[in-house]
Write a structure and sequence with these properties.
The chain has helices at 9-16, 86-126, 132-141, 149-159, 167-196, 241-257, 276-288, 292-300, 309-316, 321-330, 332-346, 369-381, and strands at 71-75, 78-81, 221-223, 230-236, 261-267, 354-357, 360-362. By secondary structure, it is of the alpha+beta class.
Length: 382
């Protein structure tokens, strides 16, 4: 049984019920060595030449374009032309082409990531007369500490759902999940060190589809310069527990990458999270006072947003409550949130948290963003 089945699974479904589940096998799933509990799914940081793109994306090479005057059928002897198929068919073709190019690009990226990882581990293990997986397992076991009672209680309180059994009934499962996370973090650290000492180049052709238009709106909250080489956009829901966890992973990026990354926060309140939209509107009113991130942190730290939860978070964030109430009343914040939601629907967002990096959907977890940033910077600087 999955260790989080009682504590967390219901939360994962609540934030992603509109989206297809991530792949767990086959060519589209990253392969990682066994270390008693699952290890993370690292993305190899490219440290050399960027992919040749030749200007326009080579995704266009997969397009089966029809000339507008191409005859595609007939009715009682009268020609049916390609342009007669209508704009809906053209839009559907463009969507299908984007999905195909993204899928093939992801398959290739993951395949080369897996290959580099395997070779690095095999090389490290061979130096000590071991196979790579055995070597990694021993290294991880030597780094990971058993969780304390305080660790166990904190984890349970952070991720329990409303229907979660008491802690004493799922204690062993919680311990297993904590160890899984710690083993994964230890394995990630080891792999990062191996990659940092190696020179990795990627020469695959860039077949990603053209970047989606995700420029900031005038009222979009974020950090980093608008002209940064890397632009990360997150669509988030303030009532989604996994968005709260993603926020913890995003916070260090500001300090680590400074003026190299622009991060933008966009709202995507899910319909079954009743407090998510009021919280999003409150965030825009906090942004008008220059205190978006204070409000953001206060909301995600709240045990509940029901009732006065959102307003309580606004007070803890130090907002001028008179101006806050006036902002909510004039309807501008609601319009800004709806504009974000509409943009999310336009670019294919179905669940939260959902990230885009330089206009391309990001399939990894928030914890993988640093590796993706390194990869993008290497391409930009190559």
């Amino acid at each position: 049984m999955n260790p989080r089945v009682f504590v967390v699974l219901s939360l994962a479904l609540a934030c992603n019920s509109q989206a297809a589940p991530p792949p767990t096998s086959g060519a589209d799933a990253k392969q990682t060595p066994a270390v008693n509990t699952p290890t993370p799914e690292p993305t190899t940081a490219v440290t050399a030449t960027p992919r040749p793109s030749g200007g326009a994306s080579s995704c266009d090479g997969a397009r089966f374009a029809l000339a507008s005057d191409a005859v595609v059928g007939s009715l009682d002897g009268a020609d049916i032309l390609a342009r007669d198929l209508g704009p809906e068919a053209q839009k559907a073709e463009e969507t299908a082409l984007r999905a195909y190019c993204q899928a093939v690009s992801r398959i290739r990226d993951q395949a080369i990531d897996n290959t580099v990882q395997r070779k690095l581990l095999d090389r490290a293990g061979a130096a000590e007369g071991q196979d790579g997986e055995t070597w990694l397992q021993k290294k991880v076991l030597g780094m990971v500490e058993q969780p304390t009672d305080a660790d166990i209680n904190a984890f349970y309180e952070q991720y329990k759902s409303e229907k979660a059994p008491p802690l004493d009934q799922v204690r062993e499962q919680v311990i297993a999940e904590i160890l899984k996370d710690r083993n994964g973090a230890a394995a990630q650290k080891i792999l990062d060190e191996l990659r940092a000492a190696a020179k990795v180049t990627v020469s695959l052709p860039d077949i990603r589809p053209p970047a989606l238009e995700l420029a900031d709106a005038p009222t979009t909250a974020g950090f980093g310069p608008s002209d940064a080489k890397i632009h990360i956009v997150e669509f988030s829901d303030f009532e989604c527990p996994y968005c709260a966890r993603a926020a913890e992973a995003v916070r260090p990026l500001k300090e680590r990458y400074g003026d190299k990354v622009r991060f933008s926060f966009r709202h995507f309140p899910l319909s079954f999270h009743k407090s998510a939209r009021p919280a999003a509107e409150g965030a825009q009113c906090a942004n008008a006072q220059g205190k978006f991130w204070e409000f953001h942190d206060a909301v995600f730290a709240s045990p509940s947003l029901a009732g006065s939860g959102v307003r309580d978070a606004a007070e803890r964030a130090g907002l001028d409550m008179g101006a806050y109430d006036a902002c909510l009343a004039d309807g501008k914040a609601a319009a800004q949130v709806q504009a974000d939601f509409d943009k999310g629907m336009e670019v294919g967002v179905e669940g939260t948290p959902n990230f885009f990096v330089n206009g391309q959907p990001f399939a990894g977890a928030a914890s993988d963003l640093a590796a993706e940033i390194e990869s993008q910077l290497a391409r930009a600087n190559g």
